[in-house]
């Protein structure tokens, strides 16, 4: 696997592949790679001739009091994992390559509505940062397809809508969340958990599973389902286990609006603090 950090090096390789008529799949990451990221590379191989990955800890998507300075950076280990997964090219730009004028003077991409609630509310400006960097990386790599993990469910919806709204000729491939045996979704931020927190953290996913079962049971019995009341109960269980729920909502799977009686494609979205880590997770519930 070749690693490049300059834009012209990336463009030259992409151009050479294009001249050979080859297709390109793209996996953007912030590094500190785990099996979830590698599953994106594995999926990417199914959709194109060449796979390009990027590692860039994007300052625009971190809030002022967030963990950008301490965000784990493990480049050598990441390169080994990407090589083993058969990645063809890795792009590792420095911030001044991506934002040469600095963040304050940088044009940005805002995807309205879908970016507003949940993680968008708890982390103001986060999805503007995500949409901007993904748009910029798409312009640099010009992939045919791009793979994103469904653990970041709202992020996938934001990117899907950005691609549609801005007519980008790129197919977005959502990839299922990889979990530990305990049910805990793999995340770079799990590295912040102590052994004790690691034992309590699976309470988040367990509560989502409980809530999904209640919804399915209510639907099967043709009962009216109290989405808000059930979500409150699930949040209480998470808090009782020692986490601190940031949000937990049952939503329409595409619009992410609060679920209504008529919706059959749902997603439960949740975030909770566990020690120093802010964990996010979700569970899709398809009723019909
Ligand atoms: O999901 C991530 O790791 C990041 O949000 C992404 C998509 C690489 C953009 O920085």
Automatic annotation (TrEMBL):
Main location, first listed in the record: cytoplasm
SUPFAM superfamilies assigned to the protein according to its UniProt record, in alphabetical order: Nucleotidylyl transferase
Binding-site residues for (R)-pantoate, renumbered to this chain: 61, 155
Binding residue positions for beta-alanine: 61
Residues bound to ATP: 30-37, 149-152, 178, 186-189
Top-level EC class: ligase
Subcellular location as annotated: Cytoplasm
Function: Catalyzes the condensation of pantoate with beta-alanine in an ATP-dependent reaction via a pantoyl-adenylate intermediate.
Name of the protein described by the UniProt record: Pantothenate synthetase
UniProt gene name: panC
């Amino acid at each position: 696997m070749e690693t490049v950090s300059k834009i012209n090096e990336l463009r030259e390789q992409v151009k050479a592949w294009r001249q050979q008529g080859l297709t390109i799949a793209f996996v953007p990451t912030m590094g500190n790679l785990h099996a979830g990221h590698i599953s994106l590379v594995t999926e990417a191989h199914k959709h194109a001739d060449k796979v390009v990955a990027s590692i860039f800890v994007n300052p625009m998507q971190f809030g002022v009091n967030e963990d950008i300075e301490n965000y784990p950076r493990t480049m050598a280990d990441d390169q080994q994992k990407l090589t083993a997964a058969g990645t063809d090219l890795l792009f590792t730009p420095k911030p001044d390559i991506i934002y040469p004028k600095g963040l304050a003077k940088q044009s940005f991409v805002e995807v309205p509505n879908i970016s507003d609630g949940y993680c968008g509310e708890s982390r103001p400006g986060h999805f503007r940062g995500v949409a901007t960097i993904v748009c910029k990386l798409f312009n640099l790599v010009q992939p045919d397809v791009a793979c994103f993990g469904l653990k970041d469910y709202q992020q996938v919806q934001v990117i899907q809508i950005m691609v549609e709204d801005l007519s980008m000729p790129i197919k977005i491939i959502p990839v299922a969340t990889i979990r530990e045996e305990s049910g805990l979704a793999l995340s770079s931020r799990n590295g912040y958990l102590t052994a004790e927190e690691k034992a309590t953290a699976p309470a988040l996913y367990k509560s989502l599973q409980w809530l999904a079962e209640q919804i399915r049971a209510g639907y099967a019995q043709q009962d009216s389902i109290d989405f808000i009341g059930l979500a409150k109960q699930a949040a209480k269980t998470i808090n009782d286990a020692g986490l601190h729920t940031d949000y937990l909502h049952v939503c329409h799977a595409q619009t992410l609006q609060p679920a209504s009686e008529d919706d059959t494609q749902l997603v439960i979205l949740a975030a909770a603090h566990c020690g120093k880590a802010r964990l996010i997770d979700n569970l899709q519930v398809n009723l019909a």
